[in-house]
UniProtKB/TrEMBL annotation:
Name this polypeptide is given: Outer membrane beta-barrel protein
InterPro entries referenced in this protein's UniProt entry, alphabetically: Beta-barrel_OMP_2 (IPR025665)
Residues annotated as domain Outer membrane protein beta-barrel: 25-166
UniProt organism field: Pedobacter alpinus
Superkingdom of this protein's organism: Bacteria
Amino acid sequence: MNLSFSEFFNLSSKYKYVNDDQGTSNETETTTNFNLTGYADIPMSAMFSIQPGISLQGKGAKYFDNGTTQFEDNVLAIEIPVNLLANIPVGPGKFYLGGGPYAGFNVAGQRKVTSGNNTSESDLTFGNDAGDNIKSTDFGVNFLAGYQLSSGLNFGAGYGLGLTNLRPNSNSGTNVEQNNRVLSFTVGFAF
């Protein structure tokens, strides 16, 4: 079993909105944030391993309301991923490819609202009640690929596909769905 630590940034963190009542589907603009992850690499065979871990993820998005007011959400989430990896020896290391489910818990966040020359900031509220901005729990699937040198240094990329509708039920009279979409890049070291 190897213990690993990786950090870097989430290049593209955005929401995907689907409004069934209007028949529309669009993605918001991206924000740049961070990720910090620790995980155990447990070999299951010569080629496969399982990686349970814990991750601190910066997520969020930029989006416009009626084309004039810009909202920018920055959310801090704790994620617990469990990934299955295929490890293929190549050169002085191994190429890895895999994925698996995650459970995420939104713990803090801010919303910045810009309308014309006016800007305001407020803390996000988490829950499923009237007045909440975003749900507190997120479930999704990770997809990973990268290369690990025999020294333990590794470079990777991942995509987090949120499956939970993060929009609180009481926030809208219409059927609107909001999901996370996160493209991340990492540099890490396995001990």
